[in-house]
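hiii so um. not sure if this is the right channel but i have a protein structure encoded as tokens and i wanna go backwards to a sequence. like what aa goes where. can anyone help
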């Protein structure tokens, strides 16, 4: 069962997104002799690439949130300025 599908006693468990460092530092057990598996160097190279992309996405998300907060604050200032002028008339 995946983390997203698990339920706690009181409802859905909160989903905690992976962070770039968690992807980058994830290690896998090596398969024994005579068994099939993935090339560890290829897996870790891919995980590093995913972690870099995730870090870029998180940075862009943070910048977007800051921009949205700034725009929201500017709109509030503008609306309060209009309200103040309306009450003076």
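sure thing!! here u go:
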């Amino acid at each position: 069962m995946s983390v997203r599908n698990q339920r706690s006693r009181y409802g859905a468990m909160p989903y905690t997104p992976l962070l770039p460092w968690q992807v980058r530092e994830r290690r896998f057990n090596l398969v024994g002799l005579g068994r099939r598996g993935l090339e560890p160097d290829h897996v870790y190279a891919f995980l590093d690439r995913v972690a870099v992309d995730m870090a870029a996405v998180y940075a862009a998300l943070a910048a977007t949130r800051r921009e949205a907060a700034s725009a929201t604050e500017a709109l509030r200032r503008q609306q309060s300025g209009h309200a103040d002028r309306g009450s003076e008339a």
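oh and Residues 40-88 form the longest helix (49 residues).
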